[in-house]
Amino acid sequence: MAVTTLDSDASQPARASLLYDPVIRGIVFQVLLALLILYLVVSGIANAAANLANAGIASGFGFLGERAGFDIGQTLIPYTSDSSYQRAFFVGLLNTIFVAAIGIACATVLGFIVGIARLSKNFLVRKVASVYVETLRNIPLLLQLLFWYKAVLSTLPAPRGSLELFNASVLLNNRGLIIPQWLPEAGAGIVYASIAIGIGAAIVIARWAKRRQMATGQAFPTIRMALGLVIGLPLVVLFLMGTPFTPQYPELKGFNFVGGSTLRPEFMALLLGLSLYTAAFIAEIVRAGILAVSKGQTEAAYSLGIRPNTTMRLVIIPQALRVIIPPLTSQYLNLTKNSSLAIAVGYPDLVSVFSGTVANQTGQAVEVISITMLVYLSLSLLTSAFMNWFNSRVALVER
Amino acid sequence: MSDTHSEADLATTKLAFVRDDFIEQQEAPTREGGIGQWIRVNLFASVPDTILTVVMILFLAWILPPLLNWAFFNAVWDGANREACLGEDRGACWAFVEAKFAQFMYGRYPLGERWRVDLTGILLIAGTIPMLIPRVPFKRLNAIFLLIVFPVVAYVLLVGGYFGLPVVVTDRWGGLLVTLVVAIVGIVVSLPLGVILALGRRSRLPFVKYASIVFIEFWRGVPLITILFMSSVMLPLFLPEGVSFDKLLRALVGVAFFASAYMAEVIRGGLQAIPKGQYEAADAMGLGFWQKMRLIILPQALTMVIPGIVNTFIGLFKDTSLVLIIGLFDLLGIVQLGFTDPNWSSPQTAVTGFAFAALVYFIFCFGMSKYSIYMENRLDTSHR
Lengths: 399, 384
What we know:
Strand content of chain A: 5-15%
Largest sheet of chain A: 4 strands, antiparallel
Mean pLDDT of chain B: 85
Low-confidence stretches of chain A: 1-10
Structural class of chain A: alpha+beta
Oligomer: heterodimer
Number of domains of chain A: 2
């Protein structure tokens, strides 16, 4: 009896209320959400169109070809006030990439030094590193940027009383840091070529050495060899050619400096602020990464008779890097995004040039800010794509 | 090989050994403690270590005396105007901070109404301190007070317009008041919104899932400054004509969404760390989705990520300083505004102002980070 009842139940499921059917509920819920989002988007666009029409602001991207009519303090590509808005966009974008790239390099070096110093056995070194990290991490970046710009760099002496470093070849004043320029002479091309050859040869040798070690087990001093090729070879060529570069030292003529290249105070403030701030975060990541490698790994390596230096290089660092690299990449991304604070110190980066000046001049805030956001968004999506790729490459494969 | 084997066997067989004389008295071991030992181990363990120590001492000797002289010994502690802070050998101009202190705290909030700000501050402290001490009971009531009652009361007190309180427009707000308002609104909004977004991202409904992902990745992918530009320039465009809201509120919307996206990722980390068995057990008990989340999953997930949540709060607190770029006078903005006062223009004014602002931010952020470390240790259930 009971069995037949069960069977009939199974063939004809009890009719639950539609209200409690998870599938139907899910569909209803999603349709409602979609309608809500659709309503917000459509009404937003309609309102924006009406408001723009009322204010008499043109829409569309036609403005990109128009004459910009303003000057930019630092340009990596030729730009005048007669250039187009599009050109101004690329100038800003390149400035952002420029400061971010140099900032990332400085922050990484400093961050690794401080991070390792925090694990030092030396009490003083450890404490100084912790004070550095705790102070810089807990003060807003914007405050630090303004501090460097307004309280430090702008109180430097005027050009006449410049601080002279390295026998007056480097000058520091409130116009910025002025360093000598090295003008290439005939034969400089050979030096450049030797750098390329050095790098190429280093890559080839590294591959060959790795293949040989895989096949025969014989080690090869790859790192020393590569350093010699990349740094030593160009130096040797440089001296053989009789240094085909003439230094051009900065000289004050009238009110301006002639010769040398200038790092403007805006750039220096931004670079200092970004590197010092991000270095504090990188230091913490490095420290956590090294601590994450369990002590047993070191002990196991020692018990196999591996020397401490080799243990560090072959056992600890490869495992620590697996922990360090993902958060490190996101710090690099943060540094790039934070470089948008350039607007506070007047460094002409993407946000300052494009979302600031161009948006004010054209009034087309929607287009301009959307383009800016799109640039940063693609940068960050590219970075996370790289991170996923890297993670899948280095992730531990268990069985 | 075989020889050594037999030798070893021999050694083990005639193991019986009884010592019948005393061990000779040995010298007392060198002291393994005290200051001398500590200095030897921590500062002069080896030659490179000694060199490092000397370099560090030289560095500190170079940096500390001028710093202390500037901040304390040569500092100007009181004075009526810039005259006091002028001079070659003068250090920090604390008199400037003293003179502007009220402005740094309240901005241009009307003098007669400042008790309202004070009262709000007292309520906030009274609500927060018992929340932070784990032993104090009534956590649930306390949380309801902080997250629901306090925001309403604070709104009535600060904005006014009810119970005969005159309205104070937000243009007059400033200083630490604005910094705290932006930070606290960000915190109060981002926590529930972050939970919803995190649940949405893990939802089985595809539309909900992708809508959450797009929302989160969008806000996390762009710098806060462009978001503030967007909310201050673009947001008014998207609203029907005639509807306008004030500058502070627009900044609040931007900051709150921005913080929610980061919070969602932190909470998602917690949700992912909950073992699958917990979900299945809740399902087996016949709990519905919201019951399961409220009673089983979220309490565990949220406790697990308290350090991450606090870190997001610290980031948010520091990021509030960005509102000065869209023309609001938060703490940093009002300190900077003080530099333009001709009464106080001296070479030391800017440095002193920044030092004061940095100190205030530092106290808040460092306090939060120390508290998160304390909670981390308290909640650490691993065996050590």
